[in-house]
Structure formats: C-alpha cells, structure tokens
Amino acid sequence: MDPISNSPPPGNGADSPIIVETSPPTFAADVIEPSKTAPVFVYFWAPNPACQQFTPLIERLAREAGGQTRLVKINVQIYPEVSQQLQLQTIPSVLVFQNGTPVNGFTGPIPEENLRQFFSRILGAPVEDQTAAALEAARTALDAGDPGVAQAHYSDILGQNPEHGDAIAGLIETFLALDDRPGAKAYLEDVPKKLHGHPAIASMRARLELAEAEAPSESTNALLEKLAKNPKDHAARYDLAMAQFRTGNREDAIESLLDIIRQNREWNDNAARTQLLKFFEAIGQEDPLTVAGRRQLSSILFS
Question: Which in 187, 212, 239, 266 has the greatest CB count within 10 A?
C-alpha cells in the first residue's frame, strides 16, 4: 500500500476553490500545505445514504465560513487505502488538519447545530457571524448611498454561498440603487426557482415592477390640486400614490391608497387594494410601515 504522499505533487493547491476533491497523489498539495496557514477540513465520504444527506450540510457551512477554511473531500470507496491508513471506522468522517497534522475530528453525520459548534471551535467564531457581519456592512453602505461597496460585500457572501437569499436580494437592491434596472432584471431572472418565494427576493421583484411601471402623466402638485377640488377623484389619488412611492414617500403613498379603500373598497376592480399589497411586498413584510399599513387595511375591511 502506498502511503499518502508528504511532498506536494501538482494538485488543486492552496489557491483552489473552498471545496475540492482530492486523491492520494494530490493529498499533500490539497491538505498538508494549505493547513500550514489555515485549518483544512478533510471530509471522507462514500456514495451512501448517510453521506448523501450530510454532504450538502457540511459544504454549506464550509462556504459560510467565508474563506477561513477549505473543505477537501476524498471518496474512500475509490481510495479505500486512505481510510485504512488513517484507521477510519465510520463513514462519513471528518478530520481537521493544522500545520500538516490532524488535530480534531468526528465520525458519522451530526446535526447542523453540532456541526456549527464544531466549526466555531476550530475557527474561533460562529460561521454565521461572518455572514451577518458582511450583510450588516452591505446594508450600512447602501444606507450611506454607496451601493458599489454594498455590491462588493454581497458578492463576497455569494462567492461562499451562491444561494444566500438575503445576499441575492441585496445585490439586486444595489442594481436598483444604481438605477440599473436591466441589471436587476437580468439577475432576478437567474435566481434559482426554489428561491423565488424568498421574502427579500420577492420584495426586490415587486420593487422592480414598481420601478418599471409607467410614471403618472401629471405632477404631484397637479394631482394635489385636483384632489383639493374633488377629494373623490380616486384616479387622481391613485396616481398620487404611485408618484409618492416612486419618490420615496412611502408612508404617504400607503395613506393615499388607504384613503381610496376607505371611500370605495371596490373602486376600479380593487385596484387600490391590489396596489397596496404590492407596496407592502416591495417595502418588506416585516417593515414597520407594512405592519402599520396592514393593521389599518384590516381595520377598514373588517369594520
């Protein structure tokens, strides 16, 4: 039996992606050398049901670690000599290499909570904290009017976890902030189908639809003058709501639509209520404006 090589032949190397497959000839290049600068998680797997369930979990947490580690996978069904040499009795198994030697590990699939705790012990901080910090930095940049910086943060997150719903939504928001509607639309079209219902992504879709809606033909002042003369001009009030929302005056936009519903719930085939629900989705279902607006809508509808 050939031992695992201790000299690094050509392999995936330290500059490879966060998740790589290895083999005995490339083990040193994929594991030993990189472990001298950062912990390397080596995942011993086989095509069995336990691994089929556990693999997506450990890969996701490796991506969430944000480059602090790498996950190197080796198929022990193809390379049984590896598990024999390391005396692994159970598959899946994980060994953590640091400075060229295994320093920690576990055998068998473990629950996500336990796996997160294991990652935290090795890396020194919960992996989700790193993503949360990047999300917060991106939001701060957006609020400060710097969508380019926010875009970089969201891209970093998606580089580790391409299906992170909040980061996808955030990146789309940066396109809208840059007034790049084609970019936002193209990115939305590429969102995986299973994420279409993600609240933040649905919110961005609604915001894009509102941004692409035709602007009212009359100015806000002209619409206000119309309403001063005829408070029951629902078409003018509807256009006013759309103009208010487009200029960021969301609270007044909600109130304008609520005024229509108070006066005539079914006006124009429930157009005011339909548009109000789109406003709520665009703002975000947990936003205080949405919560307060829904409360008022319920009060009107069920009074």
Answer: 239
Q: Residue 103: helix, strand or coil by DSSP? A: strand
List, by residue range, all CATH 1.25.40.10 domains of the chain: 130-212, 220-302
CATH architecture of 130-212: Alpha Horseshoe (1.25)
Tens-binned pLDDT, residue by residue, of the chain (303 aa): 343 433 333 333 334 478 999 999 999 999 999 988 889 999 999 999 999 999 999 999 998 887 788 999 999 999 998 888 877 888 999 999 988 888 888 888 988 888 988 898 888 755 566 778 889 899 999 999 999 999 998 998 888 788 899 999 999 999 999 999 999 999 999 999 889 888 999 999 999 999 888 888 899 999 999 999 999 999 999 999 999 999 989 999 999 999 999 999 999 999 999 999 999 999 988 889 999 999 999 999 886
| Residues 6+ away with beta carbon under 8 Å from 263 | 232, 234
Q: Phi, psi (5° rounding) for residue 87? A: 60, 45
pTM check: above 0.70? no
CB 77 within 8 A of CB 66: no
* Backbone angles phi and psi of 21, in degrees to 5: -95, 145
Q: Which CATH class is domain 19-123?
A: alpha beta
In the chain, ranges of CATH 3.40.30.10 domains: 19-123
Residues 273 and 286: their CA atoms lie apart, in Å, by 18
Q: Token digits for 77?
A: 């069904």
Tokens of 220: 């806000």
DSSP state of 196: T
Name the class of domain 220-302. mainly alpha
